[in-house]
Here is the input.
Amino acid sequence: MVTRPRTRSSMTLEEFLRWPRIDEKPCLEFHDGRVEVKVSPQREHSLVEMRLTEALNRFSEPSVLGAAFPELRCTFGGRSIVPDIVFQLDANIPCEDRGEVLNESLLPPDIHIEIRSPGQSARKPKEKLKHSIANGCLLGWYIDPERQTIDVHRPVMAPERLSADGFLDGAPVLPGFRLTVEEVFGWLVYRPKRRDDEGADPR
Here is the structure.
């Protein structure tokens, strides 16, 4: 069962960021003066989130292009949100002098990805994507595992629904990264090999 968002109003962003509960599970987000509970993911959502994070990092890590982070809090443009996946270019990942990454992320994602859970309204994740794009994010993906659809969000363009034989294109953030729609939803077919199947008579 999907956790329904609860809201609380009359709080400033500064007050919210000092609130010790913001990173409890499920995470809290700050939208235009409202505090809202992020919807808890279910298994389809989690599979796509895990595999897509892995795919982005496999592509980007050899050339040190950047990194993908699941459930990373980003505070910018007067809001504090937790996208399902954030990809940040190397130059936008804050580090200390010795190279350790800093926890706080005060920039919009370079790629912002939202994945719908069953029963979740599309309005809120699409609004989060719109906010990111309006504040400098160059690419957004809205993935609906139940309907098996993907919408691509870019600046100064209407969202584009990919066809069933289409593909995710990482440009301009990750030129050369391509992943077919079929591959993405193929991750939902999960058939682990059981130990007692090994050496069994195939008849």
Observations:
- The chain has one domain: 41-190.
- The chain is about 20% helix and 25% strand.
- Confidence is low (pLDDT under 50) at residues 1-5.
